Amino acid sequence: MSRRLKVSSAQLGPINLADSRASVVKRMIEMLKEADSRGSKFVVFPELALTTFFPRYWYDDPNEVEKYFENQMPSPETQPLFELARSKGIGFYLGYAERSEEGGKAHHFNTSILVGPDGRLVGKYRKVHLPGHDDHRPNVPYQHLEKKYFEVGNLGFNVWKMFKDDVRIGQCICNDRRWPETFRVMGLKGAEMVVLGYNTPSDNVYAPHEPPYLRVFHHMLSLQAAAYQNGIWVIATAKAGKEDGFWLHGGSAIVAPTGEVVAKGTTEQDEVISYDCDLALGEYIRNTTFNFAKHRRPEHYKLISERTGVEIDLAN
Ligand code: CDV
């Protein structure tokens, strides 16, 4: 019997500041129903899916930013989504801003979770690669303050088994997808599929000469390279469109282990794309070109885990 998993990526269009969580969850529920009508068993929602992409805004008062964070998951507003998914036997990935109390202290993370088809929490991830800055730069059209509002994730990159076929699924968030190390760690842990959500501005405020088409090209390049180089399925879901005038690109995609794009969003609105993934497809890649056990040479990769930034280090 072949192992297959029908997945859907449920892209969200813009969420403006005035939009309530309840209204967003309503939209997510409609997309979950659409995914169910197509026979999907797994739905991937975006990064920070419940609110606008708030790290673009500077808040002087730290208490003001607390309104974007969830103290528990499921929260009262997301409970209907969890209930519907469980009643339909659908698992999902959800990104949100997490506030947790640990060691008597409040912590803030950019988090995603995997929820099983029985409604139970399977696994949690806290974003490792936080882009942007933590200082105030009022002279740019928008800021990117993930380094101010979130701590670096402390759970590492993990892989969990899900669904009746024990599909090995890893998760990461947005900027993580640009770093090959993210996927290689999960590849080494036996991932067959990696899922992620993202919020990516269409313009690069710190390099304004970069055109929007290049932003989408680099996004796709990262997904396709990661899929092929690890022989895994990659599902990536955007929050897209103009949030109070700030433009996030779409391009939600399902990428096969061959590196080929098998489904891609065509809008910057709420949109579901689906594909029936053959989990055996990556095996030949993982057994030949990227047979890690046979061909990797970690003795020559040490610098990757020892050095963060470039130090000019010439051999002549
Ligand atoms: N949410 C993100 O991590 N966004 C980044 C932007 C800032 C480049 C990304 O890598 O898409």
TrEMBL record:
Keyword Oxidoreductase set for record: no
CN hydrolase domain residues: 5-279
PROSITE patterns to which the protein is assigned, alphabetical: CN_HYDROLASE
A Pfam family reported for this protein in Swiss-Prot or TrEMBL: CN_hydrolase
Keyword Hydrolase carried by entry: yes
Name of the protein described by the UniProt record: Predicted amidohydrolase
InterPro entries attached to this UniProt entry: Aliph_Amidase/BUP, C-N_Hydrolase, C-N_Hydrolase_sf
PANTHER family reported in the protein's UniProt record: NITRILASE C965.09-RELATED
Molecular function GO labels: hydrolase activity, acting on carbon-nitrogen (but not peptide) bonds, in linear amides
UniProt keyword terms in alphabetical order: Hydrolase
